[in-house]
Amino acid sequence: MKEQLKTAALTLLVAVSLVQSYLLIYRLPGTGQVVVSSAGYVRTDEMGEQLNVEDTLYPDRMIIHMGEDKHTIFYPNSAFYKLIYARIQARDFAAFQAQPISAEDWEKVAANNPGIELSFGTGLPVPLLQKTMRLAADPTFETADIDRIWIYTGSGEEKPRAFFFSSNGQDVYEAKQLDLTVQDVLQHVAFGEEWTPYRPLKNHTLYVPSKPIVLAEAVLETDAFTSDQMQRNLFADPAVTRNIHEQDGSEIYTDSKRSLQIEDEGRWMTYTDPAAVPAIRADATESVLSAVDFINQHGGWNGTYRAELTSGSGEDYNADLSVRFRQYYGSLPIFGSGTVRYGYMDLVLQQGTVSFYERSLLETPEEGEQGPQYTLSGGQDLIDRIVKVEEVHGLKVTDLYPAYTPRMNGDTLRLVPGWVAVLSDGTNATFN
């Protein structure tokens, strides 16, 4: 009887030991499930949500032309913007026909014809646009980068016309088949009638509000992702990394191949992987897809972002291709300054492989408190400010939009509204 009790007790102790060993090896508290990606990286902490590539592909603004040279602008996430874009996404466009951009007087079209103009900033390749819009496969323009889509209805015409503008500034493609009606376009345009009117400048390439715009500052309490979290997400074996302290206060972690640099008092990270990759022509669509995948696997997304390609297009692609994901708060983009780096993620890809990755480590809520209100200039006052910016910088202003500038106050992030003027050399000038 005594021997049976000893045997039972020993068996129980062995079972408990096995369970404890399993928990220590596979379920360490706080680490969650470990997943090794195909690239040899480890994904552990779910620091942010995962996104699909189409979640990052949308126009940076929607210009509503109402005829009689009346215009307004809707920005992302606003109610009318979302409604109109969702309806356009549900429509089919096919039978594309190429023509030179000079074939139409676009200034006259903008002034006289009700329509909707979607701006895609620096442009997106057609295969990426096909992931967010129903564009028929067509060899006529499948290699183009599209920076604008313009749908309008002419006087007396029975159906609307849809044009896709190439970012090369020379070509435009008309969709000869589309299932939008004239009434659809007029209904969408009618949403802009009671909105802030915008005045066209520079042959309808720039629009300014006819009166000042009042926007509130956003105040967000912050936390920060830790260097340990980033190490676990970016290194195949964080145990073999070593730490190097820099004189400027930054820290570098390296496994002798990849490196992770933490700067700005733990608020910013830069990751490099100088793996040798054949220098062949980069594919923009593959690069954006790979960039979204990489962020999903190595940190996730802490907010709303929009994809921007920051290198050449078409035949100008280099072996390296840069992808920027611009962060939005509400309807407006965030433009980090030299003092506060926040509001974007930058990636450089070589043949679909990420060789450079930088982002903010600040963790913020989706919605913060409302701070003081700012009155952004409009009308002639804004036009005078644009002229002043051009005189100071010796460059033309090619684009203008409201945006937030981040400022830190202790652990509090303030998003201050103002105007961002894009200059002809691609740099920005911010004022409020």
TrEMBL record:
Record's protein name: Regulatory protein YycH domain-containing protein
Source organism's superkingdom? Answer: Bacteria
**Pfam families on file:** YycH
Regulatory protein YycH domain ranges (all copies): 3-420
Which organism does this sequence originate in? Saccharibacillus endophyticus
Q: Which Gene3D superfamilies match?
A: YycH protein, domain 2 (3.30.310.160)
